[in-house]
Design brief:
This protein is an all-alpha fold. The chain has one domain. Helices cover about 75% and strands about 0% of the residues. It is built from eight helices and no strands. Helix 1 packs parallel to helix 4 and helix 3 packs across helix 4. The radius of gyration is 17 Å and the shape is globular.
Length: about 170
């Protein structure tokens, strides 16, 4: 997402939009819904293909899984929106996005499962947006309703990152 909105800024599209009654928050929310919706559809397809083609079990706590997945997607998209708001240009947005991507993947447990991390690192990771989200998704997949602490941390990060994006967003 960051290169898209910053590309709009560089090409003058956002400058033209600034003359309309569209508020920055409406533009950012529309991007969050559009791209977040695409991410959620992709996640559903991954789960469906896993189930149909490879016999992977569905999450045992489906409601909790969907809730955690929506919050995780919203948190990741909010981080992207904040990068869009802060980046001066398309190349800077790509660099900031890459700089945010790898730590986010680490805290989500992509390279090292969170359960195998040393205790102190695990405690720190569980207070990051994707760290908390991955813990909530893991709990729901195992059959427990996601912990309110993990859901709350993910929601708090989503709100803070989204509010920062709205606060620092520039049309040009």
């Amino acid at each position: 997402m960051p290169p898209i909105l910053t590309g709009y800024r560089e090409h003058g599209i956002l400058r033209r939009m600034s003359t309309t009654p569209v508020r920055p928050s409406a533009l950012l929310v529309s991007q969050l819904v559009l791209l977040g919706g695409g991410a959620l559809v992709s996640a559903v397809l991954v789960v469906a293909v896993g189930r149909i083609a490879f016999g992977v079990a569905l999450p045992h706590q489906l409601g909790g899984y969907v809730l955690a997945l929506v919050l995780a997607a919203a948190g990741a998209m909010s981080l992207g929106l904040l990068i869009c708001a802060l980046a001066r240009g398309e190349k800077a947005a790509q660099a900031l996005g890459a700089a945010a991507l790898f730590p986010s993947m680490f805290t989500a447990g992509v390279w090292l499962p969170v359960q195998t991390m040393p205790h102190l690192l695990r405690a720190i990771v569980e207070y990051t947006p994707l760290g908390a989200a991955s813990q909530a998704l893991d709990q729901a997949a195992r059959g427990d309703f996601p912990g309110l602490a993990h859901l709350g941390v993910t929601l708090l990060w989503t709100v803070l990152l989204g509010a920062g994006a709205v606060r620092w967003f520039r049309w040009h």
